[in-house]
């Protein structure tokens, strides 16, 4: 992986991700040259001025860990009244997303290739987000690695400070053990309420697209669990 395609981050001891040496296609590399100036945002530029970045004032949605970006792109196209910010550390996924977004002339999207905790701390204003999405994060299924799971009490409180009152944190996973962990964390989290009146898992909301990965898993009998929690205070 060449230096110009490396994610940005500040030094820390524990990460919720590892850099996987995915091979970048020529098209993904070219996407950085062609479309990064349009879609890219840098951790080291400090607080993001969203009205300047998007040229308007609109509800703001943040997705952490968008993978190859297909569902994030679909949501940006399906919800043109909202502006979307994506965070991803794997260059092939970033390259693919900005390449497709550029070809389809998507206007309501910005992308960080950086550590999410750093972006939250340095770039995203408090009380500014209408929705935060974390879909199918790395489950770190070995018990000794559970501390690397991104959904932890301290992290969801950091997200709460970035959500506007009434804003929603939406989590989804296809690992039942992680789903139970997420629910336990969120049920105990101050300032949140489960939007599912029964207090259980939610049905998939219409705005979350079904991925090819998810369809394949369903055919194999794998479950998917959604959780939506609203900031109350």
UniProtKB/TrEMBL annotation:
Quickly give the catalysed reaction: guanosine(46) in tRNA + S-adenosyl-L-methionine = N(7)-methylguanosine(46) in tRNA + S-adenosyl-L-homocysteine
Known EC number(s)? Answer: 2.1.1.33
Which enzyme type, at the first EC level? transferase
The metabolic or biological pathway listed in the UniProt record of this protein is: tRNA modification; N(7)-methylguanine-tRNA biosynthesis
* Residue span of region Interaction with RNA: 144-149
Write out the residues that bind S-adenosyl-L-methionine. Answer: 63, 88, 115, 138
Does the entry feature the keyword Methyltransferase, yes or no? yes
InterPro entries from the xrefs?
SAM-dependent_MTases_sf, tRNA_(Gua-N-7)_MeTrfase_Trmb, tRNA_methyltr_TrmB_bact
Presence of the UniProt keyword S-adenosyl-L-methionine in the record: yes
Keyword annotations for this protein, in alphabetical order, are: Methyltransferase, S-adenosyl-L-methionine, Transferase, tRNA processing
Q: Spell out the molecular function terms from Gene Ontology.
A: tRNA (guanine(46)-N7)-methyltransferase activity
Give the domain of life.
Bacteria
- Which family does the record claim for this protein? Belongs to the class I-like SAM-binding methyltransferase superfamily. TrmB family.
Q: What is this protein called?
A: tRNA (guanine-N(7)-)-methyltransferase
Q: Which organism is it from?
A: Gilvimarinus gilvus
């Amino acid at each position: 992986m060449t230096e110009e395609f490396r994610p940005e981050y500040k030094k820390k001891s524990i990460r919720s991700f590892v850099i996987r040496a995915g091979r970048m296609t020529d098209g993904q590399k070219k996407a950085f040259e062609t479309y990064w100036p349009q879609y890219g945002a840098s951790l080291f530029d400090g607080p993001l001025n969203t009205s300047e970045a998007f040229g308007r004032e609109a509800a703001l949605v943040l997705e952490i860990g968008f993978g190859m970006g297909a569902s994030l792109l679909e949501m940006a196209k399906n919800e043109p009244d909202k502006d979307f910010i994506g965070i991803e550390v794997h260059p092939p996924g970033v390259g693919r997303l900005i390449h497709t977004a550029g070809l389809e002339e998507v206007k309501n999207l910005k992308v960080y290739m950086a550590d999410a905790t750093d972006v939250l701390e340095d770039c995203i204003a408090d009380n500014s987000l209408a929705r935060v999405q974390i879909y199918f994060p790395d489950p770190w299924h070995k018990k000794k690695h559970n501390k690397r799971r991104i959904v932890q009490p301290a992290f969801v409180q950091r997200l709460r400070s970035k959500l506007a009152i009434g804003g929603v944190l939406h989590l989804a996973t296809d690992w039942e053990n992680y789903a139970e962990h997420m629910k336990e964390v969120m049920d105990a989290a101050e300032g949140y309420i489960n939007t599912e009146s029964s207090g259980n898992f939610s049905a998939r909301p219409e705005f979350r697209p079904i991925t090819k990965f998810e369809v394949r898993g369903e055919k194999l009998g794998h479950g998917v669990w959604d959780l939506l929690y609203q900031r109350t205070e």
